[in-house]
Specification:
Helix content: 40-55%
Order of helices and strands: EHEHHHEHEHEEEHHEH
Strand order of the largest sheet: 2-3-1-4-8
Number of helices: 9
Oligomer: single chain
Low-confidence stretches: none
Strand content: 5-15%
Shape: globular
Bound molecules: adenosine monophosphate
Largest sheet: 5 strands, parallel
């Protein structure tokens, strides 16, 4: 089972991915998390990506595609993959189709988590994440000061610099212009399922799991 989580920044992809990963045993591949890990380690790729991230722009397709290809070729994706934040352009979607074909696999479903823009802004401005495992929290909706996971041993949560208001606006524009065409792309491929994402975390979780049941 290979799944894409599609949605605007703040739509809850990371939160739902955390549940789906546990529930379905899929390997979670989040392009934004990969860039942030690179940045924490100050690699050339991380430093390059950061220039785009702080502007609310997309990292060029060739860079993202090479990074995802590399990640897919590690030996831990046999049970299936949960893509989160990738693809974000038609070019990336076409590259993903090709990578899956080369691996003798296919995408089974694209879950599009739909949330109105006003709510996205509210969510992003209160979002905090764990520097270690990158799980998202929220000042009001999921209030923690430290990451509760044993793996992270009480790591402080922090606000991403691209969750500042001006960058948030730019990221939403980028979503509507560059990523939204994927809704049609996957609808035509007949693998798009829409999940209402505006409710409380638990409600969205139930809706996501219900959508996945349809596929199973
Ligand atoms: P995210 O954590 O998914 O919100 O991603 C944070 C930032 O990383 C985005 O605003 C982009 O600058 C960059 N990024 C993440 N995934 C991609 C992608 N698939 N294509 C291009 N840029 C990406």
């Amino acid at each position: 089972m290979n799944v894409v989580l599609l949605g605007a920044p703040g739509s809850g992809k990371g939160t739902q991915a955390e549940y789906l990963e546990a529930e379905l045993g899929l390997t979670h591949i989040a392009s934004g998390d990969l860039f942030r890990s690179h940045l924490n380690q100050q690699t050339d790729l991380g430093i390059l990506a950061h220039q785009y991230m702080t502007q609310g722009q997309l990292v060029p397709d060739a860079v993202v595609i090479a990074m995802i290809r590399d990640r897919l070729l590690r030996g831990d994706t046999g049970k299936g993959v949960l893509f989160d934040g990738f693809p974000r352009t038609i070019g990336q979607a076409e590259a993903l189709d090709q990578m899956m074909a080369e691996l003798g696999r296919k995408l089974n479903v694209v879950l599009y988590i739909e949330v109105p823009d006003e709510e996205l802004v509210q969510r992003l401005s209160g979002r905090l994440i764990c520097r270690e495992c990158q799980v998202p929290f929220h000042r009001r909706f999921k209030p923690f000061q430290y990451c509760p996971s044993d793996r992270c041993q009480g790591e402080y949560l922090y606000q991403r610099d691209d969750d500042q208001p001006d960058t948030v606006k730019a990221r939403l524009v980028t979503f509507h212009t560059e990523t939204a065409p994927l809704i049609d792309y996957y609808q035509q491929a007949k693998i798009l399922l829409r999940v209402p994402g505006a409710g409380a975390i638990d409600q969205v979780k139930q809706a996501t799991l219900a959508a996945m049941q349809q596929i199973k």
